[in-house]
Amino acid sequence: MEFINLKTQYEILKDNINNRIYNVMEKGNFILSEEVAEFEALIADYVDMKYVISCGNGTEALQLIYMAYGIGKGDAVFCPDMTFIASIEPAVMLGAHPVFCDIDLLSYNLNIESLENMVKKTINDGIYIPKAIISVDFLGNPSDIDGIREIAKKYGLLVIEDAAQGMGAINNGRKCCSLGDISATSFFPTKPLGCYGDGGAIFTNDINMKNILSSLRVHGKGKTKYDNVRIGLNSRLDSIQAAILIEKLKVLEQEIEKRQEIAFYYSKRLCEYLCVPEIGNNMRSSFAQYVLMAENEKQKRFIVSYLNDKGIPTLYYYPNPLHKLPVFRNLEYSDDYYTNTIAYCERAFAVPFSPYIKKQEQDEVIDAIEKCFENL
Ligand SMILES: *Cc1c(COP(=O)(O)O)cnc(C)c1O
Which residue puts its alpha carbon closest to atom 1 of ligand 1? Predict the structure, then answer.
C-alpha cells in the first residue's frame, strides 16, 4: 500500500498532461510563459484573490513575502510550534526572531490564548518588536483566522497565511489562500494541488505588494530585467509545472470532495478507538494528511509498528515541535509553554490517504487498527 497514491491520478489525467507538456516543449518558452499566466489567472479565480505571483516553491513564496514586508533583524514572528520548519525558516534566515506558540489539541492549529500570551511576553521582554503572525492551515484544516485577526488587530501585526497544506480548504465560505493579509502556498507533489517538481505561489489583493513581489521573484527587476531596483531572488514556477497544474486544477474540487468522503469513512469507523480529525463548523479541510491521535505514546508506538508489520505505511507530521529542533535549541524555549504540541507529537500518526485510495485499502487500515485494539 502506498502512503499517497499519485500514480492513479496520473493514469487518469495522462493524455491531457502529456499533451500540455509536449506543447510547452514544442513552443520552447520555458520561463514566465503564457502557461504560467494562464495558470495564475485560473488559480486566482479559484481562491478568489485579485493577484497571484507564482514562484519556485512554497518556502520561497514565504521568503518573498517576508522580504516584501521588510521583516528581518529585530522583528518577532509568531509561529505555531507544530508546522513544517519552512513556515518560519525564511524569516529566521532574514534575521527575524521566531516565537513559537502552542497549538490547540482539537484543531492542531495555533492556540489563540498561547499566541496572545507569547505576544505579551515578547512586548514585556522588550528585545524584539512583534511584527507578524504566521497562520498555518495545518494538515489542510483552516486555522482560526478570526481569532488570529483579533490578536493581529489588537497588537498591530501582519497576518501571513501559510496555506501550503490548505489548497482547496474553506473557512466560512472563503478559500484558504485568501485568509491572511497575504498568503502563500506550495505545489510540492504531495500537497493537495501538486505539480511534478517544485512550485509555489503568493496571493494578495494589494497591487503595490503584487508589483514588489513580481520584481523580487526576478532578481529585483525594475521596468526591465536589467535595471534592477532591489535585491531579489530567482524564484519562478516553470512553464512545464504550470502546464501540469492547469490540468490538475480542473479536477481539484472533485478530489477535495473525494477527500471528504474518505476522511468521513475513516473517522466514522475509527472514532471509537482513536481521536479523529476535528473540523470546525463551516470549515472544509483539504485533508492534506489524515492524522489520528492515540491515547498516549506507548499506544501510538504499538499501533504504528503493528500497521507497519502488516505492510501499511505510517508517517509523522511532524515528529518534533519546532522549539525542540536542534537548530532552535539555543533559543531555550521551555517545554512548559508547549504542552499541547508535545502531547500531539507523542500521540499523533498519519495513515495512508489520497483521493485515490481504494475502499479496500481503507478497510485494510481500519481492520488492522481494530485488531490492534483487540490485542491491547
Ligand atoms: C510544504 C510546506 C511548506 C514548503 O513548501 P515547499 O514547496 O516544499 O517549499 C511550507 N509550509 C508548510 C506548512 C508546508 O507543509
Answer: 164
3-state SS assignment for residue 204: strand
For 57, the grid coordinates are 516553491
Q: Which three cell numbers stand for residue 234?
A: 530567482
> Does the beta carbon of 167 sit less than 6 angstroms from any atom of ligand 1?
no
The DSSP 8-state label assigned to residue 226 in this structure reads: T
pLDDT per residue of the chain (376 residues) written in tens, 0 to 9: 999 999 999 999 999 999 999 999 999 999 999 999 999 999 999 999 999 999 999 999 999 999 999 999 999 999 999 999 999 999 999 999 999 999 999 999 999 999 999 999 999 999 999 999 999 999 999 999 999 999 999 999 999 999 999 999 999 999 999 999 999 999 999 999 999 999 999 999 999 999 999 999 999 999 999 999 999 999 999 999 999 999 999 999 999 999 999 999 999 999 999 999 999 999 999 999 999 999 999 999 999 999 999 999 999 999 999 999 999 999 999 999 999 999 999 999 999 999 999 999 999 999 999 999 998 7
Whole-number Å distance, alpha carbon 371 to ligand 1 midpoint, is: 35
Q: Is 135 in the pocket of ligand 1 (CB under 6 A)?
A: no
Give the 3-state secondary structure of 157-189: CEEEEECCCCCCCEECCEECCCCCCEEEEECCC
Q: Is the CB of 162 under 6 A from ligand 1?
A: yes
Centre of ligand 1 from the C-alpha of residue 189, in Å: 11
